[in-house]
Amino acid sequence: MALSSFGYFTLQSDKLADWEEYGTKFLGLQLAEKTSSQLKFRMDDRKQRIVVSSEPEAATAFGWEVEDTAALDDLAARLEAAKTTVSPMSAALLARRAVAGGITFADPACNLLEAFYRPEISSEPFQAGREISGFRTGVMGMGHAVLLVERLDDVQWFYQDVLGFRISDFVLEPFKAFFFHLNPRHHSLALIEGSQPGIHHIMMELNNLDDVGQGYDIAMSTPDQVSASLGRHTNDFMTSFYARTPESFFVEYGWGGRIIDPEAWEPHELKHGPSLWGHDRPWAPAHELAERRRFRARAAEEGLRIPVQVTQDNASFGVNNCAWWETTKKA
Ligand SMILES: [Fe+2]
Q1: pLDDT (tens digit, 9 = 90+) per residue, 207-238?
Q2: Do residues 235 and 170 touch, judged by C-beta distance below 8 A?
Q3: DSSP secondary structure string, 80-136?
Q4: Judging by DSSP bridges, how do beta strands 198-206 and 189-193 pair with one another?
Q5: Which DSSP string corresponds to 229-276?
Q6: 137-154 per-position pLDDT tens digit
């Protein structure tokens, strides 16, 4: 597999003051560097993960990591075979991205993509913008990206056949969406068929549920910032909410995503809609809101429940000392 993870996100925006506040005080990112035209945010040991720039040459692009220069060359050859224009990053762009090597290209829907290897690691420890326990990154990358596309058939082949994404699962109703993995994160990318193409959201995963809950309180204190209420997804089991950003896309802020074995994974259709509970969007068109609520009501009626996905660091196990319940369970 050529790509290994979602490595960075760069955004062209004039709203630097808004992003500084949003990135640090709400998301808990570290503002690593600030100039009059650029903000660089850290979320782990890397020198930068999210860059917001108002410079004319800045691009809104997704950075996909590859292992090394051989993997990058292999990817470039496959892109060229698929008649995709590939540009090597200039020395100036490599310096801006803080990577050893990289290429730029676009998907068939004209989303700008970059592939890179060997990102710079900071010599300073990560210092969160607010008191959070930190972001879950490492081999799973910085999170996931979700794109809206007009027609899945026009774009999906590119991500699967050329870039090497593998299907995790897919939803055919109440809307059409495909979820793709590169590593043990259930999905690093999703494509949703929709009428307004572009970025739908970027997901970042926190190490502790309380990081998300406290973020929810912060978002709830700003009118209209929460775009989907706290809820839990049926496929990656993420407990999360969605918040509006200073742009037209959202951030999904979550905890407790499942880990998959990419080698053994079998793709399948999801029959219960996107959420076990929650993720309500009262502002959505009435028919869409009703349909989503109907799916969740069915999940609840069927008693659909999934154990929380904890790690050693964020969980301690209690003892169920309720005798009558233990008897009931064994019966
Ligand atoms: Fe998501």
Answers
A1: 999 999 999 999 999 999 999 999 999 999 99
A2: no
A3: HHTT---EEPPHHHHHHHTEEEEEEEE-TT--EEEEEEEEPBPSSPP--SSS---B-
A4: unpaired
A5: EEEEESSS--EEEEEE-SSSSEEEEEE---B--TTT---EEESS-SEE
A6: 999 999 999 999 999 999
How far, in Å, from the CA of 271 to the mean position of ligand 1? 17
Residue 319 Cα to ligand 1 midpoint, Å, equals 33
pLDDT tens-digit series, residues 306-315: 999 999 989 9
Q: Residue 39: which H helix or E strand, with range?
A: strand 38-42
Q: How far is the CA of 251 from the centre of ligand 1 (A)?
A: 8
Q: How confident is the model at residue 42 (pLDDT cuts 50, 70, 90)?
A: very high
In order of their start, the domains of the chain are: 3-301 (3.10.180.10)
- Taking residues 20-40, report their average pLDDT: 98
Query: How far does the centroid of ligand 1 lie from the alpha carbon of residue 34, in Å?
Result: 28
Q: Are strands 99-106 and 50-53 parallel, antiparallel or unpaired?
A: unpaired
pTM > 0.85: yes or no: yes
Residue among 69, 61, 239, 268 nearest 169 (CA): 268
Structure tokens at 80: 């060229």
Residues 72 and 103: beta-carbon distance below 8 Å: yes
Give residue 330's pLDDT: 61
Give residue 59 CA to ligand 1 midpoint distance, Å: 22
Centre of ligand 1 to C-alpha 257, Å, is 10
